[in-house]
Structures are given as C-alpha cells and as structure tokens.
Design goal:
The protein is of the alpha/beta class. It is built from 23 helices and 14 strands. Helix content is 44%, strand content 11%. The longest helix is centred in the middle third of the chain and has 23 residues.
C-alpha cells in the first residue's frame, strides 16, 4: 500500500521504533518493575516467551518461510483457499446402527468417518459400509489388532462395488502398534508385520494411509508440546528402520502414514506445535537420502484433547473444543476430530455430537477459516514460538535417540519418566491455581451436584509400578475431591453437605471482599456449601454470627491489620463456643504463631496447595472415605 503523500510505503514518514524502546516504555508503565519477571512467560516447553515480538526478532527465522502456505497442495477450488476433513468418530457395536450414525454425520456436515472397531470381533463390513462411498467421504478404521484381515475384507468390498475404484478410496487405519505398546506393555511384533503387509498392499492408493502415528496418548498422559512432537517423530524413525528390513522403502513409508496430535487449550502454543512438527520432521529426514520430499506432503491429523476436559461445568468443554479446533486449523492440520463435550463421562448424545460437529462447520462456513491458506504465516509471535518448539523438540528427540531409539527408551523407562515429570508439574500448577481450569479449580458452580453412581468417568489408567503410560486429565484430582463430597451428601442428605461460613470483619472493604471471593472459590472446588455473612465491624457480633451459623468451617475474611488487631480475640471467642474449624483467608506473618495458639487451624492464600488442603478438610469432616 502506498503513501498518498509520497511514493514510499504507508507510514514511511514515521521512523521505525526499535524493540528496546518499547521495552523501556513498558518498564516505565510497570513503574520500575522487572520486565522479565512481570511479562516474560516461561513454559515447560520453552525457556522464555516475550509478550511481543517484532521483525527484529524473526530475522534469523528465514528458514520458516519455506514452510509457510504448506496447505496449498491440499487446495480444493470449490472449498476455498484450503480445506480439512472433519472425521466423525463412530463406535461399531451394531453395524446397522453405526452405518446409520455415519450417514447422519455426513448429512449434518462431517465429510469423513472414523469407525472405532471393537478389538474382540471383526465387524460385518458389508453392513457397515452400505451406501458409504470412500472415494467421496474418507473412511478411517481405528483398530488395535488384525489390520491385515480387516484390510483384505475392505478391499474385497471395494472391488465388488461397480461405483468404486480401489485407487480412488480415501482414509486409512488409525493403527499404531508402537503407541499401543506404551499403554499395554505388549509389543505386538505380529501387528508390526501385519502393518508392513498393509503398506505393501496399499502403496499404490495415494490417499489411503495404513498407519497413524498417534501422539494423543502422550498428550493425554501429561506430555508437553515439545515432548509430544519429539515422541511421534521418534516413533516414525523407529518404523522407518524396522520397515526397511521388510522391504518398505522410505518413499513408500512417507506416502503411507500420517501423524496425529491432540490439541489442547494453550491456544498459540498448540498452533505452533503443529507447525513445529512439520519443520522438525522435515529436518530430521535430511539425514536420509530422499531429495524430493515436500514438507507439505507430511499429513497431520488433530484431535481435541482429553486432558483439558472436565466432568463438572461440562458445557465449558464446548468452548475448549472450539479453541482447540481453531488452533488445529490455524496450525495447518489436514484433518480433524472433535470430541463431544460429554464424551469423558457418558455416551455422547445426538445433541452433544451435533454441537461438536458444528464447531468445524462454523469455523468453515461463518468464520471463513477456509479462505486463507496459512493465516499464521508471518506472525512474529507464532513464528518465534514455532522456532523455539523446534529447538526444544529436537533436544527431546536427541535424548531419546541417545537411549537407542523409541522402543529402547521406552523399555528403559525414559519415556515414562519424562512424561510423568511433565504431568506432575502440570498438576502442581493446577493445584496451586497457577494454571486455571474454569469451573474446576476457579469459579466453580457451587450449585452443581452430580450423582457419582450414574457416571462412567474416564479417570487415570495404568499403575506407577508398571512401565506403561498413565492416561489422566488435568481436572481429575479436583473432580475426585468433589465427587467424594457429592457421594457423602447423597448418602447422608443434602442438609449434611459441608458448610463454610465466610465471616467478613474489619473496615477494609476491598480486602474483605477480595478474600471472601477467594475463599468462596477455594472451598467451592471441593463441593462445599459456602455462605457469606454480612460485614460486622463489631468483633463479637461477627463471632456470634459465626457460632450461630453452625458451619463446619468458619473463614475470617479481612485485612492483615484486622487479624493483627483482633484475630486472636476472635479465635478465642469462637473456639470457646464452637467445635467448627477456624480458618484465616490470607497469610499474616506478624502474629501467625499466636493465631494458631488461639485456635486458627489453617491459613489459605494464593500459595496454598488446594488439593492437599481440601483433602485435609475432608479427612477432618470424615468425608474422604464416604
């Protein structure tokens, strides 16, 4: 765009402002506070992320330009600048019902189906595939065993159909024996042999992928973004080396597989993760004698995260699914699966499946995500984040290779060790509310109650003493606490739900209200009933209200100076007339010892570990083992 006042670019009359000048101005606005401590973000994946970047920061990232607009080779002129396949997952119990469900999914906006096959039986593919045309709508099969048998039956059906050509079918298998090994402990060598057979049988079918290397299991076990991309690449190298001895060339392997990543709620990080996977895998492949590889040929499927989903306040899962789908599409995924918001705790309903399906429809039809081939290209922030993830992912990949590759690193316990360290760090941040899960560890809906006996909740799987990965979710520890409270309440009656009374004291209205709000969220996380009193400037009126409440727990909510002036008197008066547990919201240092001596049992503040503290309260109230 030209400047109407001259021949130069727009705004060329203004001198450029170097980044250091912006940092200086921000430091002034911070009133002398350290810029790096206040605004620089440190994550498990990368050492530091600035709050903003400029062209000065990305000058060394010229190599990334070769990876921009990689979706152009996926262009469908009728669909827009780019397109993606939305796969609807359909569990196959009854073949007719599964066929009907898939037909409805196509009618309502999905353009692909992923049949999840029960490993105990081989389905009747004639019934399952009736009136489904995989040359129009891609069909995937999620299997854990017998891919060769299933493939033979599938190809027979295709060959018998006069309306289908075998070379035109699209889809593939979500079959990954190495990934299954990590959570079963059983390395299925016969399954790998069968996989090699499916590669040989389908190598001339361009759009059929017999292997999906699935990183979602790592993500849902607690792996961070750098670990997830490093581990799927390490698994890919393991397959390449194993298949070489089975006559599968590198070229045939690369044309016969796709990566699959789970996409979480860390919006920009997840965009960068998908981009970084392509960059890093392409760089790793430079060690092989293959000269005509196009980075855009590396296919990536994305699935919404299980780790981020919650049992309580489940409608928030819709919002999480939306941001996750956005990250996947903006990051450049080729296909996408979006779970129903209620999938983790019940059989998805037609309503919940429609909502998840329409996320993709809205992003395509109303938000026009299909109109731009690579909207993240040229973003200083995302490209810098991509580069940092490539660097940290390479470090993890090299660490695995030093252990002898994917299988040997897993057998030595290295993969389990690194993922569990990441998971424990995530859980620690969640327990301290430094990482927020809306409706679970912050802003819980205290009026919500669940009957635990009616749930089939996907909680942790695996054991610490086994060398297998342990699937879990970020909200799980809080949900177990709250389910204990709900179970206790249903057993003993709603009037027995643990009650917390917030006693507002002192004249400092701002601090009083802030600590009351903090305490309401704190105890609400465990499903306790929270009652807030009216402010009582008179100390003994405040104590009287607390005693009359007959609450199981009473929380003093005031300023530190109020605790110093009258906290001991309040504690002595309350404990002399009640058996309730007395708590202070805050962390007064000056008279902490005397407050404890007077009867204060606990201090809650921003540094408190919610899980440990709430579990302790449950133990005192005989709830934990209800």
């Amino acid at each position: 765009m030209s400047n109407k006042h001259g021949d130069g670019p727009l705004f060329s009359e203004f001198p450029p402002t170097p980044k250091e000048k912006w940092v200086e101005q921000v430091s002034i606005d911070l009133k002398g506070a350290d810029f790096t401590k206040k605004l620089v973000w440190r994550t498990p994946e990368v050492s530091s992320i600035d709050p903003f970047y400029s062209s000065e920061d990305t000058g060394h990232l010229e190599y990334l330009k070769g990876f921009n607009n990689l979706n152009l080779n996926q262009t469908n002129p009728q669909a827009g600048a780019r397109s993606w396949i939305l796969y609807e997952k359909v569990r196959v119990g009854d073949e007719k019902a599964a066929n009907k469900e898939s037909q409805r999914a196509f009618h309502m906006g999905s353009n692909g189906v992923d049949f999840i096959i029960d490993e105990t039986r081989m389905p009747d593919l004639e019934l399952l595939m009736k009136n489904i045309y995989p040359n129009i709508n891609p069909v995937k099969f999620t299997v854990q065993d017998n891919p060769g048998t299933l493939l033979n039956q599938y190809m027979e059906i295709i060959e018998r159909n006069p309306d289908l050509e075998l070379n035109d079918i699209m889809g593939g298998f979500d079959y990954d024996p190495l990934m299954y090994y990590t959570f079963s402990g059983n390395l299925n060598e016969e399954g790998i042999e069968a996989l090699a057979y499916t590669f040989g049988s389908t190598k001339d079918i361009e759009d059929f992928k017999p292997l999906t290397i699935n990183g979602g299991h790592f993500h849902n076990s607690g792996a961070n973004a750098a670990q997830e991309i490093a581990l799927v690449i390490s698994a890919a190298i393991e397959y390449i080396e194993r298949f070489e001895s089975k006559g599968i060339s590198l070229k045939d392997f690369l044309s016969g597989f796709e990566f699959s990543l789970a996409v979480g709620s860390n919006y920009f990080m997840e965009i960068a993760k998908i981009r970084a996977l392509r960059v890093l895998f392409f760089n790793v492949l430079k060690a092989y004698p293959l000269k005509d590889l196009n980075p855009g040929d590396i296919l990536i499927h994305s699935e919404s995260s299980v780790w981020t989903k919650t049992l309580y306040d489940p409608y928030v899962n819709m919002l999480r699914n939306t941001t996750e789908a956005m990250s996947a599409i903006l990051g450049g995924c080729n296909s996408l699966s979006i779970s129903a918001f209620d999938d983790i705790f019940s059989q998805p309903t037609e309503f919940s499946k429609r909502i998840s399906r329409n996320i993709s429809n809205l992003l395509r039809e109303e938000s026009h995500f299909d109109r731009v081939s690579d909207p993240a290209a040229g973003s200083y922030y995302i490209e810098e984040l991509t580069d940092k993830l490539v660097e940290s992912g390479l470090g993890v990949f090299q660490e695995i290779e030093r252990e002898g590759g994917f299988v040997q690193a897993f057998e030595k316990g290295k993969i389990k060790e690194m993922i569990e360290a990441s998971r424990d760090k995530k859980h620690d941040l969640i327990c301290k509310r430094r990482e927020i899960i809306i409706g679970t560890n912050q802003y819980p809906n205290t009026s919500e109650s669940i009957d635990p006996s009616e749930l089939s909740v996907k909680m942790s799987r695996g054991h610490k003493d086994q060398n297998i990965l342990n699937l879990s979710r970020g909200a799980e520890q809080f949900e177990k606490l709250r389910l204990s409270t709900d179970r206790y309440t249903r057993k003993n009656g709603e009037d027995k739900r643990p009650t917390v009374f917030l006693s507002l004291i002192g004249e400092n209205k701002v601090m009083r209200k802030a600590r009351a709000s903090f305490s309401m969220g704190f105890f609400g996380c465990a499903g306790f009933k929270v009652v807030e009193s009216s402010p009582s400037p008179d100390l003994f009126k405040a104590v009287h209200k607390a005693i009359e409440s007959k609450a199981d727990i009473v929380v003093m909510c005031g300023a530190d100076e109020d605790y110093l002036a009258s906290g001991v008197d309040y504690a002595q008066a309350y404990k002399g007339n009640s058996n309730g547990i007395l708590v202070i919201a805050g962390n007064p240092e000056e008279n902490r010892a005397t407050l404890i001596e007077a009867g204060v049992a606990e201090f809650i503040n921003l540094r408190t570990n919610l899980i440990d503290t709430l579990r302790n309260f449950q133990n005192q109230l005989n709830i934990a083992n209800a």
